[in-house]
Amino acid sequence: MDQGKAESQELMDAVLPLAEQLLTEHGEFFPYGGAMTPTGEIVNVAAYDGDEHPPSTDVISMLNKAFISASRSKTYKATALVYDVRVPLPETGEKSDAIAINLDHQSGYSVVVFLPYEITEQGLKFGSIFAQAGEKGVFK
Prior knowledge:
The chain is built from two helices and seven strands. The two termini are 15 Å apart. It has helices spanning 2-26, 56-72, and strands at residues 32-36, 42-45, 78-88, 95-105, 110-120, 123-126, 130-133. Strands 1, 2, 3, 4, 5, 6 and 7 form a seven-stranded antiparallel sheet that branches.
């Protein structure tokens, strides 16, 4: 399980900067994914169905299906699905925008990490990161 957590952390560290960059430049981002191959290489994963502006839920669904399919063929050993959400903060229960990252590893490690943020005149400001158990939906 430790390897699963460590590799998931490495994957998260690799995919997070894109969300930060897109939020800084555009104030939003479409869901996207990243994955770790069995050799440890980190790759970007995109979903496209021909629609230029698909609903985020459709993109998330397409990415999840791609991840599940790839997990069955052992193409990836870890996956990260990155999307924008509004979540209640653990400290206050107040709703906040957050970058959500669903991390799943073939070891069974599964977590959703939330990085609350606020876009201010000074730029992108992050709150305290928190996590919850994932659904273990990719590597069944």
